[in-house]
């Protein structure tokens, strides 16, 4: 691999997408002949043909297809590394305001600590986002990025890295019959007489249904503490992810694991018109690295 040029890699990637030497050359601002030369140099290094070309068509060989699949993520990672170094050289500075729902747990705190270490010129502020208003603080400019419960289907917002899924628990009063159970199923929740406490407006309806999937809607609350208070008073039950349940443990509430429901998911969300800001891109990259590259769709 001695002497490998990044231009050869860029040439192959462009040609794999365009399947046309002329168009690939236009993307790279070189001639089609130069594309052919760079490709030939890359194939000599590898020792096999990556592209089949005739007078009528251009196609990847099976080895070329495999090489492309493995090269794309490596090339993307290389570009991000270079961008991170450039940002560090420029010295990203300013303030990054991060909002969170539920609990500012170890996963988020670890990401913030890694970001602050890499970008000492940026001051971070962390604040809690009300349970019933997951997207409002972003839209009002109160925070720059928000770690919120999913799903997210807002056209003016962008979903970035997704944190690892967490098992659901059901918060019930210690006087509720479920309090003594080691685990529950989705069917148990469906047949219980207890109403399901759910977030109130202005949270979108699709988002509220995801947090309280039941045919027995109960009281609507604006904050997590309001919901826990109603649970303790036996006014209803409430679904919470495991880390939030562990953080908010209290003597008058039992948190019982639930099987058969989709896992709870947190995602990093930014405003679409601000997503490319240098400090936001750097923080998004840090979260992605710590979440294993999981990205929302």
Automatic annotation (TrEMBL):
Q: Name one Pfam family in it.
A: HTH_1
Q: Among its keywords, does the record have Kinase? A: no
Task: Name all HTH lysR-type domain ranges.
Answer: 4-61
Which UniProt keywords are given for this protein, alphabetically ordered?
A: DNA-binding, Transcription, Transcription regulation
- Family, similarity comment: Belongs to the LysR transcriptional regulatory family.
- In Swiss-Prot or TrEMBL terms, this protein is called LysR family transcriptional regulator
